[in-house]
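Lay summary

Proteins are chains of building blocks that fold into shapes. Our project writes down both the chain and a compact code for its shape. Here are two examples, one after the other.
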Amino acid sequence: MTLVREYAQSNSEQAFATVVSRHINLVYSVALRQVRDPHLAEEITQGVFILLARKAKSLNPKTILSGWLCRTARYVSADTLKTQRRRQFREQESHMQSILNESDSDAWRQIAPLLDEALNCLGEKEHNAVVLRFFEGKDLRQVGASLGMREDAARMRVNRGLERLRAFFSKRGVTLSAAAVAGAVAANSVQAAPVGLATAITAAALCGSTTTTAVIALTKSITMTALQKTLVTATVAVLAGAGIYEAQRGAQLRDEIQTLQQQQAQQIQQLQRERDEATKRLASMTDDGGNRTGNSSELLQLRGEVTRLRKEAEALAADAKEAKDSQSGMMQIMSNTPPIRTFFATAMTTTAWNQAIVTGGWKTPSGKRAIVMAKVFPEDNPQQLTIKSYILEYTEDAGSAIGLARFNTDEQSATKATELSADQFEAIRKAADNHEGVEIVAAPAVTTASGRHTEVQTVDMHQTPSGEKYSTGPVVDFVPTIASDGKSVQMMISAHLNYLVQAPQH
């Protein structure tokens, strides 16, 4: 904290650099445990120290700096993961709605051009209630808590806002029920922002709000070059994505690297030409003894220009070498990381309590089949429920023997779900325990609130021969909504199953 106070009082770059060097391993380790992604952990580490630079003057001198850094790293990591998950879910939800709910899509096309004008006509309380309920997906209890009212009052406020929206649309020739308006707005009103936009905005905001030269110097010292950012982004995509995406991203990456190399080569050539021209002018003026006195100022200026151009050329050459080394390392990671094939399932259905849904039926790289089953149970709290899910793998023979063959598909993605009775669900689950050739890969369960997006994930870490880590394992998203009668549940499910296609080649 003595160094932090020194930096806060005198903007000492040396003091802050010492703080960073002493604690960077601590912060990076906390971030890595939280996000399990080395490149994302680097960005979080950078963000933590930028926050430290901003808050240096306001920290209490008795603050335990290592403890503050640990807590801040956890907060920044949690916010980063939350933002990523929300963005991914919005993208998945938008995709599912465009495929599975054509009627809602038709309704949305009619009301979308009028929606913002209609919202503008609502009172402030109705407007806030509608936004919280349908734009942010909060349940009525959460809406009431946000507005400072009881759940029943929140329900009335939401219903009143919906009715006014319906009347507004009706006057303009769009005749829809309040339920249709609610469904269309909830499914389509919030669209996923372009991938990478949040990162770009964050970087711009940080740069724009940094005013002291010390913070600017620090940011420059710990921020990667544009080319390195491109390579890191491509590497993350290769480690996390499916085989098809890897091939596409690899082609894009090669084009980007080639373009950047050409730009750097052109810049180096231009600087070399300017340097040579300045050198010739300097030599000519040096040889001209008669004009030496009158041109002394220009001689000094040209000497400085030659020195500057020489340094810039050397810096560009170093950048080019660094880019080449980064490219070589990234290509090595690509060659060592085995291809990963991802299977998708996106479906929406309505079931009664204790009924189950099943989706999938994909043929995995090992030759087996895989399905995802989910069953919803009510809780004592009327707005809470428990979801039990099972991810099963089975051979073709075993699937035929116990009636799973009807779920089989040769596609890599699935957009349908089949309802199962409680007895059918239990029979399949027991078969996985007793029948050879049927295996439960994962059985995640979660208790959640009605209308809330919930993600369950099984982490299966691997390591390439070069030491790079990557993860496979199933990820399943649920959005269960209890019907108004309290006897059925509308379930939206999105599953991602990742499989290694082959072992790394040496």
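And here is the second example, written the same way.
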Amino acid sequence: MIGNPPWDRMKMQEVEWFAERAGAIARQVRAADRKTAIEALRAAGDPLAGEYDLARERAERAMDVARSCGAFPLLSRGDINIYALFVERAQALIEPRGAAGLLTPSGIASDLTAAPFFKSLSTAGRVLSLFDFENRRGAGREAFFPDVDSRFKFCAFVAGGPERTTEAAKCAFFLQDAPAADDPRLFHMTAADFARVNPNTGTAPIFRSARDAAITRAIYERLPVLVDRSSGKEVKAWPVKYMTMFHMTNDSRLFWTRGRLEAEGAYPVGAGRWAKGERAWVPLYEGKMVQAFDHRAATVVLNQANLHRPAQSEDATDEEHEDPTWIPEPQFRVETSDVGGYMDLGWVLGFKEITAPTNQRTFISAILPAVGFGNKLPLLVPDARSDRNEYKFAAESNCFIFDYVTRQKVHGQTLN
């Protein structure tokens, strides 16, 4: 079976939908404010509200069918992408010794939601080849898909049925054309290699060369992973838990802008905090405010003309860095009662989730004040408060060797 299935998320994309129909709603920074504007449409009897409700219902019903029909047990989790359903269906339809080759986003081999499916193939020797391409073809050459962002990565993914296995899968990444047999970027991964290098997920690493593959495999043969769940139990090399706090979309009703605080009668009390009577608000840190070892890297500024990324970072100046009292201005603040009791830790370890393997640095962490954090700035918190050694991991995770290994694992723009 061969094919090029559609690459579209099934979940209703609210900003994109309103961008073509009601720009003022699409430009609302908080999801909660968009919902308020949509309710106003309904109250006014605007037919656009009915069109929106119908489109959202269709998307939700389609996802319900995908999740409940039984045909897609592994790839109907999370925000479903239509291509994933084609991939799983193709595997169900081919004969035991058949094979399916599909052009898909590279997330089929790396995304967390696709991990159970890919692991079921990679650790059984059923991945025959995985060739990952950038959507650009060098200077003066057209992109493979002109209507798709040039940074987007896709792959030619070939996998066999239960009786069609191979000793080692052929793999290559960051290609701009089909690889030749002697291409130095071409390497082979056995089922044991997939299980060793990504033991928890079985997803594919993205080695740029056979040399990168050999170095990384040697590291994993000698050293444990931070948290190993491959046996069904959690074995931790360091007793730490991963956590996120505020979801930037779902929790937006809890976010306070400077204007909203001023209208409430609140006032700044130092260190980026605001107060009114017994109530208090702390900054909501986002990944864009942080750099390696630096919790004061940037202030957040708004560009309303940018529908998809209105909040942009503005780097701190040397003069601001030299002033120990200077605090970056966040986009939002959150009430201390919504943050929870962990604030008495005083400081925490966080890292930037949004990244890319082509960036100068891929893994960026810092010691941060115990305030509020968006979900794109996850925390690593020790299981026991008596063992506060996160500063060691901040040093280790910002070093070159850790960064080198990390970028062998990251396919897209996120570390999740």
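What can we say about the second shape? The chain has two domains: 70-234, 241-407.
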